[in-house]
């Protein structure tokens, strides 16, 4: 399914709505976080790169974002795949898209804070655990991971 569908930055209001709807549904709603908590202040920064894999029907199958965070370094945040689409290569495609964007921006390293359950996904895609990091919502331990690109 996902291999033939393009990944791009959301353009229309409907695409932005689908983008944030998936972020909220996968990363915030299950922990009773309020609507709006899926948005970050620097989402609108011109240096932030957004990736959306839009499925037929106009819903978001996968999303993620990248921002520069240091000399040569970019951070990936808000990776989320629609539950029905998980395990089918969507996350891999979104992450590769962001890595390519990082490379085009002259970045040489990606860092991210992975939820414990997502650590094997990132390891599969070449990332290594650096150290434990924060615990989100009091119950979701995260791990700082990195990969040279
Ligand atoms: C984590 C997430 C983004 C991965 O996306 P996905 O589309 O399910 O992953 P993919 O199908 O692209 O998987 C790519 C590879 O990683 C492996 N993988 C994915 N999740 C895995 C897991 N939990 N454990 C072990 N391997 C995993 C896949 O088997 C696949 O390996 P392959 O090369 O042998 O085929 C997605 O499952 C998700 O949204 N999870 C819930 C939200 C979340 O945790 N987001 C990350 C926040 S840091």
Description:
A seven-stranded mixed beta sheet has the order 1-2-3-4-5-7-6. The chain is an alpha+beta fold and 149 residues long. The protein is built from three helices and seven strands, in the order βαβββαβαββ. It has a single domain, classed as Aminopeptidase (3-Layer(aba) Sandwich), CATH 3.40.630. It binds coenzyme A.
What are the defining features of this structure?
7-stranded mixed β-sheet, single chain, Aminopeptidase, 7 strands, alpha+beta, 24% helix, 3 helices, 149 residues, binds coenzyme A
Secondary structure layout plus pairing:
Layout: E1 7-8, H1 13-27, E2 49-54, E3 60-70, E4 73-81, H2 90-104, E5 109-115, H3 119-124, E6 128-136, E7 140-148
Parallel strand pairs: 4-5
Antiparallel strand pairs: 1-2, 2-3, 3-4, 5-7, 6-7
Bound molecules: coenzyme A (COA).
Residues 26, 79-81, 86-92, 114-115, 117-118, 120-121, 124 line the site of coenzyme A.
Structural class: alpha+beta
| H/E element order | EHEEEHEHEE
Number of helices: 3
Identify the strand order in the major beta sheet. 1-2-3-4-5-7-6
Would you tell me which CATH topology applies? Aminopeptidase
Quickly name the level 1 CATH class. Alpha Beta
What's the CATH architecture? 3-Layer(aba) Sandwich
Give the count of structural domains. Answer: 1
Q: Major β-sheet, in short?
A: 7 strands, mixed
Helix content: 10-25%
CATH homologous superfamily placement: Gcn5-related N-acetyltransferase (GNAT)
Which outline best applies?
Answer: globular
Q: Uncertain spans, ≥5 residues at pLDDT below 50?
A: none
């Amino acid at each position: 399914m996902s291999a033939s569908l393009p990944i791009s930055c959301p353009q229309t209001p409907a695409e932005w709505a689908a983008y944030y709807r998936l972020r909220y549904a996968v990363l915030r709603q299950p922990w009773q976080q309020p609507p709006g908590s899926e948005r970050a202040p620097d989402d609108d920064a011109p240096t932030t790169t957004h990736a959306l894999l839009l499925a037929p029907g106009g819903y978001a199958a996968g999303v993620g974002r990248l921002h520069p965070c240091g000399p040569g370094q970019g951070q990936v945040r808000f990776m989320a795949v629609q539950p029905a689409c998980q395990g089918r290569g969507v996350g891999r495609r979104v992450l590769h898209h962001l890595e390519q964007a990082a490379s085009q921006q002259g970045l040489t390293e990606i860092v991210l804070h992975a939820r414990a359950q997502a650590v094997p996904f990132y390891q599969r895609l070449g990332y290594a655990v650096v150290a434990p990091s924060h615990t989100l919502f009091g119950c979701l331990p995260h791990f700082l991971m990195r990969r040279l690109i």
